[in-house]
Write a structure and sequence with these properties.
Chains A, B: Keywords: Carbohydrate metabolism, Lyase. Chains A, B: One of its GO terms (molecular function) is 3-dehydro-L-gulonate-6-phosphate decarboxylase activity. Chains A, B: This is 3-keto-L-gulonate 6-phosphate decarboxylase. The structure is a homodimer of 224-residue chains. With 224 residues, chain A is of the alpha/beta class. Chain A has ten helices and eight strands. At the A-B interface, α2, α3, α4, α5 and α7 of A face α2, α4, α5 and α7 of B.
Chain lengths: 224, 224
């Protein structure tokens, strides 16, 4: 068990705005995510530019890959992403294709600072049995979140969310948690031992971004 | 019931290659799809360039939207897409957000040649009851396909596929069909009355692209 990391999600429409957003807090986060909106807007250029600016951070490409896994994984990893999100709803063959590309990269580059990894993004109807099959495929990470749209519709963290995350963690899956994360919520997740990262977007890109990052980090220190 | 349309899916890594691929068959297809691979690689520029080259075609943005529906839909429609794919696994709020953006566009622009529409892309575990809820939300289209990775793994069209598509069609959903479509397969789908389009990629971009497009069109004439 290691301490959860802090991840900033960049979800602006342009790379220029994303750079502006990440610049102030880069030294206070471990992981920089090129979010779906940014990736869809700017394409792979968004990954390669963030990689060139931040050679030492873990970089996530949040494609929520749903098909064509082999091609998208190769493209994302070659552009500089370390981790790639894959939708839980993707066909098992798609997940396997992404994982195979990651493993090939890791085998060919044994001295990578950060291994290429796949993160299953939990959308749609999935079961703990599915999660066991991901583990069997060599996949170690999953992302649990309130849907952005559900969040905008005012839905908060439920006990049901927390229990599902705990179950995943207890299976051995490293869980990243996202969806309007604020420092005041961190304690809610203290029983999820395998918390890999907390992912925040707007909370870290605003005026008080650095203070918020430090506040989340100090909450993490308290509970893990 | 109208005759199914023919859609080319552009899934190259670069817009230059995509333009090369579409140019020869553009006059033989009704719909041009900026596929997931192309959209993820080039970003929104891929949509706006294809739109400027083909002002009269229906253009599909194949994001397989899984979250942040409102933002992605707005971005895709503003760049020139007519239809946007949304993953069946997306939260209902995400689907509603996309549909709301489409309806707002249509209301503000009553003279659009092609209405903005959402297409539910059938990934993950979904039911006919889900499909009924999409219809209630005002969504009229769905896309049924063999997963690209499943197809690469050698899985063909099954009776189960055909029955599910027929059920969707009988509910009133317009179904587009994709996954290694070739002229010889068109007859398989003749009982799916509400077939909206056949989507082909590699079959239309190769050396025999025009002949294949014409062959698919003549098969459509035979069966619808």
């Amino acid at each position: 068990m290691t301490k959860p990391l802090l991840q900033i999600a960049l979800d602006s429409l342009s790379i220029e705005k994303a750079i502006q957003d990440v610049r102030q807090v880069a030294n206070f986060v471990d992981i920089i995510e090129v979010g779906t909106i940014l990736a869809c807007s700017e394409g792979m250029k968004a990954i390669s530019i963030i990689r060139s600016l931040y050679p030492d951070h873990i970089i996530v490409c949040d494609f929520k890959t749903t098909d064509a896994g082999g091609v998208l994984a190769k493209m994302a990893f070659e552009a500089g992403a370390d981790w790639l999100t894959v939708s839980a709803a993707a066909h098992p063959a798609t997940k396997l294709a992404c994982q195979a590309v990651a493993e090939e990269f890791n085998m060919l580059n044994p001295h990578l600072k950060n291994k290429k990894e796949i993160q299953i993004e939990l959308y749609g109807n999935w079961t703990l049995q599915d999660a066991e099959s991901w583990i069997s495929s060599g996949i170690q990470q999953a992302i649990y979140h309130r849907s952005r749209d559900a969040e905008l519709a005012g839905k908060s963290w439920q006990n049901e969310d927390l229990l599902l995350m705990k179950n995943l963690s207890d299976l051995g899956i490293e869980v990243s948690i996202t969806g309007g994360i604020v420092p005041q919520d961190i304690h809610l997740f203290k029983d999820i031992k395998n918390t890999k990262a907390f992912i925040a977007g707007r909370a870290l890109t605003g005026e008080n971004g650095i203070a918020t990052a430090q506040h989340i980090s100090s909450e993490i220190e308290k509970y893990w």
